What does this fold into?
Amino acid sequence: MATTADIRNGLCIKYNFDIFKVIEFQHVKPGKGPAFVRTKLKSVTSGKVIDNTFSAGHKIDEVKVVTSKFQFLYNDGDYYHFMDVEDFTQIQLKESALDNPGLLKEGEFVMIMINTEDNMPLSVEMPASVILEVVSTEPGIKGNTATNATKPAKLETGAEINVPLFINEGDKIRVETDKGTYKERVKE
It folds into this structure.
């Protein structure tokens, strides 16, 4: 058993008959009244995000997890298949377990949290950014780049994001995985 003092980002807890991962937390000590911890929790089974407030000293049921490095192999429509880079065992996860599956390229490395009690995968942590090639986009109009205008672009993984007007087909771009947004053009 842990308490609210042990809450940190990435901590997995049992709450309301489900397992949640702490995304954000804030310890609050108001001038009047008892202290409390405001949290944002994400269900590792459904992906649903909830806000919750725990009173200070509240007991929480911590879930012991192990984080391992896995390589993304392929997806077959329903499941995403990963391989452990150390012992080469393979696991498959539903699309709902991933935060932004459209940005996952074959061969990409991710960190997967596994519950030590039943060896079930809980969540997938993607890298902060990925480099993907633009497969199709409309050509930019010369002289129209003074504003922060964007246009849709289809990436090699099939995902569509908005990119600046100067991005062309064949360009490699860095995409932030947590927001799914364009970050910069990459020269290779």
About this structure: The mean pLDDT is 85.
